[in-house]
Amino acid sequence: MTQHSCRFCGASLHHSFCDLGMSPLSNAYLTTTQLNLMERFYPLHAYVCEKCFLVQLPEFETPEQIFSDYAYFSSYSESWLQHAKKYTDDMCAQFSLTEKSQIIEIASNDGYLLQYFKEKNIPVLGIEPAANVAKVAEQKGIPTLVKFFGTTTAQALKTQGQQADLLLGNNVLAHVPDINDFVAGMQIALKPTGIITMEFPHLLRLMEHNQFDTIYHEHFSYLSIIAVEQIFAKQGLTLFDVQELPTHGGSLRIYARHTTNQQLPIHPSVTALKALEQQAGLDKITTYQTFAEKVRETKRQILHFLIDAKRTKKTIVGYGAPAKGNTLLNYCGIRSDFIDYTVDRSPHKQNHFLPGTHIPIYAPEKIKETRPDYVLILPWNLKTEIIEQMAHIRDWGGQFIIPIPHLTIL
């Protein structure tokens, strides 16, 4: 058996957190011509480091392979756009950002967030490795650097006189295999009095709410304050505030500054959240070892329901084609024998097939045509938005299936 090392502290990884078997890359959607070709599957096995408590996946595929041509466009979720706009307003008010400030976003996607700073005439720069996604941002007038972020990119920007007053990244910290180089890059790209904000799913909520489907190959790390504080401190950065957010089933927004910048005192929220994690046992290896059985039980519940539904001739379709849905379906072995098709609002996914399961993806209108008995909501973090959009399934007695944290029929 291959011995893996912790990507932060280098310690050997002995302790399993969750083994989800073999799975394809979660955003590797297939065209019709690819259906009969060989598909690559990789181990989807998360470990926890006994030294720093970072939960992580070993790197089986390079970021270049995963992210260079990307199927996820942030602007197709209304609730996510609202979240981005509110963030922009909050940051401008809290940190007095003006037309003289410089905003840099790492993993800026299609400009979903920077467009709101641009509306306020604040200079922006996006850094986005996926050229197909960056092109959409450029079309919105948002200057975007098509590169992976790390010390090399950060040093090049600094040499050109570009450093950030506000350096931000939403759902990117978990996506980088070399987390030390990434955080060191942020330290370089930040002005002496600048501020960093990062948002990422909170490991504590993942464990509490059984969100195992957020484990996929793009997410190299699963983050707690206990781990993140150590990672930032190593690079001369201090966490001075933290907020809990409802996004993605429970996320954190951390605020960081140069350790040498004493103007921003450490808020009690940092100590309080760390204490909460310790109370939940995130500083003890035994806590992590109980998670796997919860995951197996959820799989049994889902399959039991689907088998019974199909035996009684019920029709089931999916809503959404998110990465998390691909983890769930592949781990549970749910293919088109259970789910006829799924739908997605993004035209970039429509007329493709889900990786591994080969379930076809259509536009949402398809549901009205076929009038299924059940709609399985794969992006359960957007269930409120989706149930509202798809309320018409009630007209023919249709019901929604929510798979996480446990099987619920609505």
From TrEMBL:
It comes from the Bacteria. InterPro entries: Methyltransf_Zn-bd_dom_put, Methyltransf_Zn-bd_dom_put_sf, MeTrfase_14, SAM-dependent_MTases_sf, Thiol_S-MT. SUPFAM superfamilies: S-adenosyl-L-methionine-dependent methyltransferases (SSF53335). The keyword Magnesium does not apply. Keywords: Methyltransferase, Transferase. One of its GO terms (molecular function) is methyltransferase activity. One of its GO terms (biological process) is methylation. Residues 246-405 form the C-methyltransferase domain. Residues 6-67 form the Methyltransferase putative zinc binding domain. PANTHER family: METHYLTRANSFERASE LIKE 7A, METHYLTRANSFERASE LIKE 7B. This is Methyltransferase family protein. It comes from Beggiatoa alba B18LD.
